[in-house]
Design brief:
Oligomer: single chain
Radius of gyration: 14 Å
Shape: globular
Structural class: alpha+beta
Number of strands: 6
Number of helices: 3
Strand content: 25-35%
Distance between the termini: 40 Å
Largest sheet: 6 strands, mixed
Order of helices and strands: EEHHEEHEE
Length: about 120
């Protein structure tokens, strides 16, 4: 089954540590990224439930959390805002990037639609 994971820049934000980026083109899911670092399935699931994660692809930066790809909590939105300058620089994001919180889950091979647009550009 073909999917778009290999066309995106996936990342996980660890609030007290920094940003974990997947090597572009590998096509790993966030759970797989954590498993490759040695986390157990249970640990990886717990991490993904709590911290912001997402991807950048084709002019869209999408954030979400939890197994159901829900929008960021206010606390995680603040974490994303803190890391915004780093994300912008590391991903070489264009000024007109579209930023979203939450995804409407679809089939793996389909393009999933974002839920809410975020404005992270304030105070840059």
């Amino acid at each position: 089954m073909q999917h778009n994971h290999h066309l995106r820049h996936a990342f996980i934000i660890f609030p007290s540590v920094g940003i974990l980026f997947e090597k572009y083109g590998l096509g790993l899911g966030h759970n797989e990224m954590l498993r490759q670092l040695g986390f157990s399935l249970e640990q990886a699931s717990g991490i993904l439930e709590q911290v912001p994660r997402g991807y950048y692809m084709a002019g869209n930066l999408c954030f979400y959390q939890g197994k159901d790809f829900k929008p960021l909590t206010p606390e995680n939105e603040q974490i994303v805002r803190f890391f915004w300058p780093d994300l912008k620089q590391m991903l070489n994001l264009p000024d007109n990037v579209h930023v979203y919180s939450g995804m409407i889950v679809g089939k793996l091979e389909d393009h999933w639609m974002p839920m809410h647009q975020l404005n992270l550009k304030k105070g840059e």
